[in-house]
Amino acid sequence: MRRMRGTALAAVTMAGVLTLAGCAKDTGNSSNNASGSTGNSGSSCVTAPKPPAAPELATSSSAAGGKVDASKLKIGLAFDVGGRGDASFNDAAAAGTDKAKADLGVTQVSESTASASEAESAKQQRLEQMAADGLNPIIAVGFAYAPSVAAVAPKHPGTKFAIVDDDSINQPNVTPLVFAEEQGSFLAGVAAVYKSKSCHIGFVGGVNTPLIQKFEAGYIQGAKAVSDKVKIEDEYLSPAGDFSGFQDPAKGNVKAAAEIAKGADVVYHAAGASGKGVFDAAKAGKALAIGVDSDQYNQKTVAADKDIIITSMIKRVDVAVFNYIQAVAKGDLSVLPKRFDLKVDGVGYATSGGKVDDIKDVLDGYKAQIIDGTIKVSDKPSK
């Protein structure tokens, strides 16, 4: 783990899974309420008492503290597979630089996107070219860039690098931007149970890596925290090392449709651009879905399915990217948190569409218990 950074946060508001269940056979009712608006839709499934009401929380201040001028920064943004337009992880990063343009005066952002099958040398070349072009800072979006950042950063000590979802690089010019995905996914699991009529839910992960297992672990722990009888389907689109699982909507559709056929009536995905296929399957199967990373109810690329998206687990990559740029412009990276978690609004859940308004008190109650340490959320699935 890298050295501890300052604990002060910047929560910039921008629209804001434990036990691994085996693939249970369908014994439940597959009829669903596609609107997700009925508060008692999961009443027959919920077995835990309602959590205490959440206390009033103070509003966080800006991470870098006050207005700064970032107009002189030339930013390099190296996307993971899917790039801008994936309606998920990469779009969240792009939203961070877009806000930096609007609020901090940034005028130059150079973007480049990884392909699913590219060699490690291609990632290194992308970062080397950005550094050679004088871009500074350079933000690598995704843990897949870790070997390349580790190789390139020492060659360019005057260039600042940030990497999303990795904290393994111990270099003075590299800043990790990491998140408590399991905490936000716990709330997604709670929402899934409360909105399920069949007491049978699903999870579709993009690539079977420790990072995506954090989403899986939290989701399943949250579901089991509120129900001792929920059934959970659990699938991945590709194994570790094969990043096509983040960019294969057709496969996402097939996997989600199979879970729905087994009886799952709410499906949560952590699969990047493949989530479009999960949403399509949910709509076709008269099920509900939970998005990830961005507030997917408001994403244009999945607008045709917005009526079945009840919420999204928001991973505020946008906040982390914006705050990093702001801190670089100010010349003080110590203001960034070590991890973007629920306490600093680094993860959360979306309320767009009003489909979880009736259980917001429940979600906020569990959120408060996670923040105060009453509930410990594991980042690893338990077999």
UniProtKB/TrEMBL annotation:
Extent of Low complexity compositional bias:
29-44
**Listed name of the protein:** Nucleoside-binding protein
- Which top-level group of life is the source organism from? Bacteria
One GO cellular component term noted in the UniProt record for this chain? plasma membrane
Q: Where is this region: Disordered?
A: 29-62
Checking PROSITE patterns in the record gives: PROKAR_LIPOPROTEIN
Kindly list the residue ranges recorded as spanning the membrane: none
Q: Does the keyword Iron apply?
A: no
Localization terms from the record = Cell membrane
Q: What is its main location?
A: membrane
Keyword list (alphabetical) reads:
Cell membrane, Lipoprotein, Membrane, Signal
Q: Where is the ABC transporter substrate-binding protein PnrA-like domain?
A: 78-377
Signal peptide residues on this chain, from the entry's feature table: 1-24
State a single Pfam family of this protein: Bmp
